[in-house]
Amino acid sequence: MQARMTNPATLLPEAVKGINALYKAAHSAGVPTSTLELVHLRSSQINGCGACADSGARAMRKAGETDDRLFSVATWRETPYFTDAERAALELAEYATRLADRPDPVPDHVWEAAAKHFGENELAAIVLWIATTNLFNRMNVTTRQPAPQHWG
User: How far is the C-alpha of 112 from the C-alpha of 79, rounded, in Å?
Assistant: First the structure.
């Protein structure tokens, strides 16, 4: 697959500054990086963003994430590899990514499950990171940004 254009975020320097600020804010609230990366990977899988799914999984592996967890993010409900807090964050990511799929996009039970594990600032960071991931996904999918080829 060939990109339709250079990634829009790299063409507009002010966009890069804004995206970097969102990244920094989301990663500064005390949510474990592994939780944010799981959320990023799951949202990217849902949105079909190969570039983000690839880079996210590779970054997680480099940070020491296990293959068992990486290979089962899409099936997190059916596998034993995730904590209750991670499961709540993954469920929130799925609902917040698929907003048009139901009349009540993020039902109370989903929010309340996440709120059992995360404080308000941490929830703010997770929601911000889901939204930022969806921003990345929409730019990449729309402009057909490919995942890099890795050999070997």
Answer: 22
CA distance 68 to 147: 22
What pLDDT does 30 receive? 97
Find the length of the chain. Answer: 152
The first and second tokens of residue 132, run together, are 């930022």
Convert the pLDDT of each residue in 31-62 to its tens digit.
999 999 999 999 999 999 999 999 999 999 99
Residue 32, helix vs strand vs coil: coil
**CA 136 vs CA 41, 52, 90, 108: distances in Å:** 12, 8, 18, 27
Radius of gyration of the chain (CA): 15
- The CA-to-CA distance between both ends of the chain, in Å, stands at 20
Torsion of CA 108, 114, 115, 117, to 10 degrees: 160
Residue located via tokens 């929010």: 111
Of the listed ranges 15-19, 30-34, 75-79, 89-93, the least confidently predicted one is: 15-19
Amino acid at 131: A
Q: What is the CATH number assigned to the segment(s) 14-142?
A: 1.20.1290.10
48: region left, alpha or beta (phi > 0 left; psi from -120 to 50 alpha):
left
